[in-house]
Amino acid sequence: MKKLIPAFAPLVLLAACARTEPVSEEELSVVEPVETPTLVEDGETAALPVSDMAWQVTGNAALLGPEGADPALSIACGDDDNGLILTRYGVEGSGSAGTLTIVGNGSSARVPVVAAEAEGEDRFDWTATLARGELANSIAEAFAGEAPVNITATSVEPIVVAGSDELRGLLDRCAVGGVDAEREIGDAPLVMDEEAAAAE
Question: Which of 30, 45, 75, 116 is at a distance of 20 to 30 A from 66, taking alpha carbons?
């Protein structure tokens, strides 16, 4: 069942006064604009406003979450500052594989993620490890501007948040680079081990 927000009583009054003849432009010019109602599914949480979450960057990891609460997302550097490790925390239920999508600044990245154990019953985390290359570069580009970035993942609420100078510094250091040590699997260049790279 869906809830209609705000209350729809003013719309009912307008409908009761409806007429069939055309409305003149003069009449339209004095009509107050009506706020578009928002449909919210029972049990759903709308995308969090940008101001409700902030980045905390310490060393090689950036944590995103409301102040004083558990993080919702982390972006960390891989070993030796090579590539990124992405984690979307606190997904309810169970899962095996999904997609994390990051869109902003004219750039988009669709990252295949796998389920990892999380604290708490009936919860898990989505995670992915990326090498330097096109996909990691797209993530860095999405956060390069000042505009909000839309972050969605399978079976979890979306996040809308802007980047920060500290986050951009981390991404420049660990994400931006060449494509010598990556393999294309779907949309995601995943880290290859050295033996596999040598064999190719």
Answer: 116
Residues 55 and 30 in one domain: no
Quick check: 143 pLDDT over 90? Answer: yes
SS3 4: strand
Percent of the chain with pLDDT over 90: 50
Closest CA to 157 of 50, 36, 45: 45
CA distance 154 to 91: 9
Coil, strand or helix at 86: strand
pLDDT for residue 57 is more than 60: yes
Closest CA to 112 of 181, 178, 62, 185: 185
| Domain containing residue 37 | 2-41
